[in-house]
Write a structure and sequence with these properties.
alpha/beta; Enzyme I, Chain A, domain 2; Glucose Oxidase, domain 1; TIM Barrel; 3 domains; 8-stranded parallel beta barrel; 4-stranded parallel beta sheet; 22 helices; 14 strands; 49% helix; binds phosphoenolpyruvate; binds magnesium ion
Length: 570
């Protein structure tokens, strides 16, 4: 595909160079932005007239002077005339000035660096706003960004997106999970990519191996085109499985559920024959909004989801923000966000958010009764009890208001190591459990799921993770409660064989991988899966576990869904 570099809002440092033909249009755009910022400055100055002294307000005059034709404005114009787009010219000029101010001895003048930067940011914001609508997405767009966000994915017109590249983050980041759900090849954590220089060039994104090729040769392009075609045929072949049950050769059933969040997940899940929703990430509709959605708005969103799958069950997780999931209108700034204010911790501190959400869920389920509520990031019984108390309160309220709904099944996510050791105590108080292997892996191995530098250490086949999963199943079943798994591990076909053998009651995964998992589980016996599990549980090394598992499946003739594109030598 073709690289389209998208920028985070108004960050001067990451503006790429971009050559333009229509210099007059760029000049005009820049002049417009100058005019708007001038107006803003006059307005701000007038607004603050009663609060600031005259000398203090002089800052705005300084700003206005800097914008003058003789100063910044003219320098930027000069660079545009060399064929650089307005944003790139602005970056060059502003950063140049900032650097010069920062080097000055005089403290007052050094301070001016931040004024220039601020001014630059204001101009850039206007330039980007104008550009946003003008950004063209060619066919086979490969979106490249310093930090991909779900909103950026949403802006590409349907059918145009072929690949994603993010400089930050890792394969376990939330944006990668969305990409996987959409079936878009993605490479995360490409820390050394000179991304500001690749706009408009041809790229190959190999998500299987985490590789990006710039300006690929004809031969390589041809080889990858063949992989794409093979994938298409495989997917087409798997479509036939839609109506067939997920059942091993020796008759063991394994319900396959789906994870949802994006609107598109609903249609995809239905096409692929999911048997229920094991995880509806409610934070997604919150993330694409500009403010907290009201109870009424949430009710409508949830009702749509419940109705789409009815009578199949839909497991709605209460708001799980924090970590790498941010709401622009509810910023959380922390040194250590994954060990900080996340998930249930936020909503128990803000019961009003929790109550509005659970009330909306309950009301949405009226007459459908296929709702299940799931609580994220529970680390002990006290949090669970508080959350249960609030759910009961919400239930009482909606019934008082005339909504006739039964109390839905309530479950807890096991994704913090402490919860693994409290499985029995937690299970006693709820109806079901669901393992969040994404976070559980990160916390057991002390590997930030979002940090590309340690991404190699993040491994859900680590023996410690496998042992934790076995313990959870054992303890949950001892309390007579079913246990599912909804982390990305469940959608990895080879790992799913082990999860089947361990005794999970259902697997919940992205719709993209569901047919592959179903295909594989239908080709194997439970006894063979158990034999494999027995074998890997004696091993102490995750790499050995990985290769043993993959080799065994390949020897059974089942390699087709576990490692495509394996024969390309670039
Ligand atoms: C998990 O942690 O495994 C999980 C399913 O939740 P999320 O990825 O949304 O944190
Ligand atoms: Mg989680």
């Amino acid at each position: 595909g073709t690289a389209v570099v998208v920028l985070p809002p108004a960050d001067l440092n990451v503006v790429p160079d971009r050559a333009v033909d229509d210099i007059a249009a760029e000049l005009e755009l820049f002049d417009k932005a100058l005019g708007w910022v001038r107006e803003d400055m006059h307005e701000l100055s007038a607004k603050l007239a009663t609060q600031l002294r005259k000398e203090e307000r002089a800052l705005f005059d300084v700003y206005l002077m800097m914008l003058d034709d003789a100063a910044l404005g003219n320098e930027v114009r000069k660079v545009i005339k060399t064929g650089q787009w307005a944003q790139g010219a602005l970056r060059q000029v502003v950063l140049d000035h900032v650097q010069r101010f920062e080097l000055m001895d005089d403290a007052y003048l050094r301070e001016r660096a931040s004024d220039v930067r601020d001014l630059g940011r204001r101009l850039l914001a206007y330039l980007q706003e104008e550009r946003k609508s003008a950004l063209v997405y060619p066919d086979n767009t490969i979106l490249v960004s310093e930090e991909l966000s779900p909103a950026m994915l949403g802006e590409v017109p349907e059918g145009k997106l072929a690949g994603l590249i993010s400089v930050t983050g890792s394969g376990n980041s939330h944006v990668a999970i969305f990409a996987r759900a959409m079936g878009i090849p993605t490479v995360m954590g490409v820390v050394d990519l000179p991304y500001s220089k690749i706009d408009g060039i041809k790229l190959i994104v190999d998500g299987y191996h985490g590789e990006v090729f710039t300006n690929p040769s004809e031969l390589l392009s041809k080889q990858y085109a063949e992989v794409v075609e093979e994938e298409r045929q495989l997917t087409e072949g798997l479509d036939a499985l839609r109506a067939l049950p997920c059942e091993t050769l020796d008759g063991q059933r394994m319900p396959l559920w789906v994870n949802t969040g994006l609107l598109a997940d609903v249609a995809r899940a239905q096409q692929r024959g999911a048997e229920g929703v094991g995880l509806y990430r409610t934070e997604v509709p919150f993330m694409v909004n500009e403010r907290f959605p009201s109870e009424k708005e949430q009710l409508a969103t949830y009702r749509e989801q419940l109705q789409a799958f009815h009578p199949l069950p839909v497991t709605m997780r209460t708001l799980d923000i924090g970590g790498d999931k941010a709401l622009s209108y509810f910023p959380i700034k922390e040194e250590n966000p994954f060990l900080g204010w996340r998930g249930i911790r936020v909503t128990l501190d803000h019961p009003e958010i929790f109550l509005v959400q659970t009330r909306a869920m309950l009301k949405a389920s009226e007459g459908l009764n296929n709702l299940r509520i799931l609580l994220p990031m529970i680390s002990g019984t006290q949090e669970l009890e508080e959350a249960l108390h609030l759910i009961h309160r919400a239930w009482g309220e909606v019934r008082d208001e005339g909504t006739d709904v039964p109390l839905p099944p309530i479950g807890v996510m096991i994704e913090i190591p402490a919860a693994v050791y409290q499985t029995r105590e937690l299970a006693r108080q709820v109806d079901f459990l669901s393992v969040g292997s994404n976070d559980l892996t990160q916390y057991l191995l002390a590997v930030d799921r979002n940090n590309p530098r340690v991404a190699d250490l993040y491994d859900f086949l680590h023996p410690a993770v496998l042992q934790a999963l076995q313990k959870v199943i054992h303890d949950a079943h001892a309390e007579g409660k079913p246990v599912s798994i909804c982390g990305e591990m469940a959608g990895d076909p080879a790992a799913a064989v082990l999860l089947l053998a361990m005794g999970f009651d259902s697997l919940s995964m992205n719709a993209t991988n569901l047919p592959k998992v179903k295909w594989l589980l239908r080709q194997i016996t439970l006894s063979k899966a158990r034999e494999l599990l027995g074998q890997v549980m004696t091993m102490d090394n995750p790499h050995l576990i990985y290769s043993t598992l993959h080799l065994a499946l390949r020897n059974l003739g089942l390699g087709r869904v576990i490692n495509p594109a394996s024969n390309i030598q670039a």
